[in-house]
Amino acid sequence: MISPPEFTLAKLYDLQGLVALVTGGGTGIGLMIAQGLAANGARVYITGRRVDVLQRVVEEWDMKKEPHMGTIIAVKMDVTSKEDIQQIVDKLSNCEGKLHILVNNAGQVGPRSPELNKPSPTAPKNAEQLGKYLFAQESFEEWSNLFTINTSSIYFVTVALLGLLEKGSQDRPGFTSNVINITSISGLIKLAQKHFCYNSAKAATSHLTKLLATEFALKQIPVRVNAIAPGTFESEMTNVVIVGPEATDASGEPIISTPAKRPGKHAEMAGTAVYLASPAAGYMNGQEIVIDGGYIAVNPARV
């Protein structure tokens, strides 16, 4: 019989002293997760291309955090640059010697086709009009650039940090270092939501999550890889303050309204990431947690 203290929140979700890296950690979902990890004791490096945004987060965190909480550290990094990624590897090697949690969150929305499904006089009305509109609206370069940041970067950041993640697993008995990829319900549903490219890239990231988890497991590398697929949350990507069911639907563009009739809350996103990062999720590997207020429960999806 396991002793009762093993079932306490302090034991199950113990992140004290762990080292985390959150890409795109200065705003939106990345910031929610970074704060959640730090609030529970982790030392969290946040990266992005805008140093001023990252530094503002650090200053605000330092003013508000409580003594038992961890720190947030700002580091400039472009996840599409091998040079920048290597600099992060070198910095963590020198400053920490290990990494316990990697959150691949950085991403963009990419090219859009705003007239798709839009009930307006200018919207395409038949196959020929639709084909011409979609062909002219987006470019190969836009698709390539978005896949680079939303999918390819996750591969390169993860494999570059794999050695440090393995050392993180060896650092604490019973704990497994882990990677959390931020995908999206857009990669799981069968609706384009006016951005075929974004949805395709997120679907690729979902599969990449499983590929990495499987290959690491087969090679007995002690690093778990899972994903979170968010529905509608307020972020720079949604570009609005989302209040009520109409605004929630305007962001997610469902056929049937999201049952929760609201966007996700910061604590709900942070709590999901804390679970995946913690010892409580030590038996979870190669999985994708959907947190969407019931969106894909009532809309066509591939899961």
Automatic annotation (TrEMBL):
Belongs to the short-chain dehydrogenases/reductases (SDR) family. PANTHER family: 7-ALPHA-HYDROXYSTEROID DEHYDROGENASE, SHORT CHAIN DEHYDROGENASE_REDUCTASE FAMILY (AFU_ORTHOLOGUE AFUA_7G04540). Keywords: NADP, Oxidoreductase. Gene3D superfamilies: NAD(P)-binding Rossmann-like Domain. It comes from the Eukaryota. This is NAD(P)-binding protein. PROSITE patterns: ADH_SHORT. The keyword tRNA processing does not apply. GO terms for molecular function: oxidoreductase activity.
